[in-house]
Amino acid sequence: MRMLINVPETVVADALRGIAAAHPELTVDVENRVIVRRDAPVAGQVALVSGGGSGHEPLHGGFVGPGMLSAACPGEVFTSPVPDQMARAAAAVDSGAGVLFVVKNYTGDVLNFDMAAELAEDEGIQVAKVLVNDDVAVTDSLYTAGRRGTGATLFVEKIAGAAAAEGQPLERVESVGRQVNENSRSFGVALSAVTTPAKGSPTFDLPAGELELGIGIHGEPGRERRAMMTSREIADFAVHAVLDDMTPRNPVLVLVNGMGATPLLELYGFNAEVQRVLGERGVAVARTLVGNYVTSLDMAGASVTLCQVDEELLRLWDAPVSTPALRWGM
Amino acid sequence: MLDADFFRRWMTVAAASVDREAERLTALDSAIGDADHGSNLQRGFTAVRATLEKESPETPGQVLTLAGRQLISTVGGASGPLYGTLLRRAGKALGDAAEVDEAQLAEALRAGVDGVMALGGAAPGDKTMIDALAPAVDALPDGFAAARAAAEEGAVATTPLQARKGRASYLGERSIGHQDPGATSSALLIAALQEAASGA
């Protein structure tokens, strides 16, 4: 194992100390694992709190700041945070206008956020929740935990965050968040497995010359394995998988997201192929974001997320944002 | 009769057993999950052991409630709320009694298992911790050894199943052929009951 770490036990705390040093505009509580924008609570504004396992950086800590999240709770690597963290975050950012929890659809995240909502409500904080479940690789049925939340989390956090920054009420911020999720779909591929600090070896065995299709962001294997494909072939497969599940009538936001170990040279090349397929399918593209945003430690690979937007959602997407990982218009 | 000391011993033995088996649990989890079940439970039960030493709860119910709350606050993931609920519900069911008998413990654990099923939405056969816990509770009236055997058998029997809950469910048919890590750790918890009773 070659990792730039001290010991697996302190990986998350060490990273938090580093974030604190790099971003004086954030308040980082290393002991309780809560990252808060320094000017919180902002009077008259709904606060957004999200969180999940560590290892997906910049998600979520990198998205804390004006125009996006008010606070983030990082859990252990690939493990959801605990209710105490989320309740503490909610108390730190609530201005009285209420708190929106943005929750990715994994059993652990859902259960812990539910418990946190109860704790926060006991303290008199008004809480609403948006569940993100955009991954079309997972067959959804009554008998499963449902679809995973992946790339669309960024769209939900940005667009609902913009609505909150405008002073819209909790009910409205929540419904904007839900609308973004309902209009979003994702599909991911892995070219290598993940090595978590605690385990120290790849979580699944992916021989050279093969790739996993339909992976999530936790190093779990995907739906199927095939012989290695070209960027063009992967883009065809991924975009078709997404479009088989949605028929955009409006332009889309495109997120071409790296899993952590794929360089931008490859991601931009992949984006060219994604845009080609979208053009062939007659899908208009409003905005495109390329980079490592919802990562999976050292996994090589990429995901494609499309979000169908109307004028209002596009306006909120374009609204100013100032966070460590996403910044424009201010 | 089982007193607070017995329940403290149960949690201490469980913590030692999770320490011993953490690597195996994580290895099982890496096949169908995200390779952290062992280290997460280890962190939780280490905290439970420390809290029980510090706070010295006086009744069986208090021991389990405190342990459950500690797991929820430290484990994270799905196993934190699920194991936490199992112990808290069981602790609540025991009430304020200073000593309880085996039948009361069986009843309390059944309340705990019902709580886990309600929270996680899982039923027997979904390839989860329920597959070890439910048969163990059924067997508990026949003694700790019978409960242990039923839990271990239940855990092994998850291998050919397709996961329908939790992260392993995302793999669909590819989850078949792997023993469920949650059912495996549940079997450890039940085995610890027998070890605590034999004074180990």
UniProtKB/TrEMBL annotation, chain A:
The keyword Zinc does not apply. One of its GO terms (biological process) is glycerol catabolic process. Its EC number is 2.7.1.121. Signal peptide: none annotated. It catalyses: dihydroxyacetone + phosphoenolpyruvate = dihydroxyacetone phosphate + pyruvate. Pathway: Polyol metabolism; glycerol degradation. One of its GO terms (molecular function) is phosphoenolpyruvate-glycerone phosphotransferase activity. It comes from the Bacteria. Keywords: Glycerol metabolism, Kinase, Transferase. The keyword Transferase applies. InterPro entries: DhaK_1 (IPR012736), DhaK_dom (IPR004006), Dihydroxyacetone_Kinase (IPR050861). Residues 7-328 form the DhaK domain. PROSITE patterns: DHAK. One of its GO terms (cellular component) is cytosol. Homodimer. The dihydroxyacetone kinase complex is composed of a homodimer of DhaM, a homodimer of DhaK and the subunit DhaL. PANTHER family: TRIOKINASE/FMN CYCLASE, TRIOKINASE_FMN CYCLASE. This is phosphoenolpyruvate--glycerone phosphotransferase.
UniProtKB/TrEMBL annotation, chain B:
This is Dihydroxyacetone kinase subunit DhaL. The keyword Metal-binding does not apply. Residues 5-195 form the DhaL domain. Keywords: Kinase, Transferase. GO terms for molecular function: glycerone kinase activity. One of its GO terms (cellular component) is cytosol. Pfam families: Dak2. It comes from the Bacteria. It comes from Streptomyces collinus (strain DSM 40733 / Tue 365). One of its GO terms (biological process) is glycerol catabolic process.
